[in-house]
Predict the structure of RNA polymerase sigma-70 factor, ECF subfamily.
Amino acid sequence: MSTEDVYQEYADFVFKYLLTLTNNDYQSAEEMTQETFYQAIKSIENFHDNGKAKFSTWLCSIAKNVWLQELNREKKRHQLAESLSDEKALYYDLEEDYFRNEDKIHFFKQTHQLSEKKREVIYLRLLGDLSFKEIGSILGESENWARVTFYRAKQLIRKGDKAGES
């Protein structure tokens, strides 16, 4: 029996078997069928027709191995993609942290230039997360005073940012 005859006789059987393994992925089953016959031709001397195993069973065992190898390759591709994605996220996070830290340093430098009262209002509001009423109470001033002082301090910080841009 020639190689072409073997292919003609068993290709459809092997293809259907691989189709079930690949959850009806026609393209993958077709590619794996080709690979199965390639592997079978390479190792035809390993098949012994001793009545114990049918040729179709031998081909299916090769097909299953081809399928398992493809699953393993896919798993490794997926792990690599995930690893690269994690690396990219890590790099992005580090870069973001750097710029966030630079922004913090700039903010504190700008805030340090303010008067003590304005600086204290900014810190209590932003870092202490306190309401204007609470800030006024702590500093012995009114809620409105705390609100206006905070607003003016923000304006001075923004002015400092714009002065640094020119």
In short: The radius of gyration is 36 Å. The domain at 113-165 is CATH 1.10.10.10 (Arc Repressor Mutant, subunit A). The CA atoms of residues 60 and 104 lie 64 Å apart. The chain has a mean pLDDT of 83.
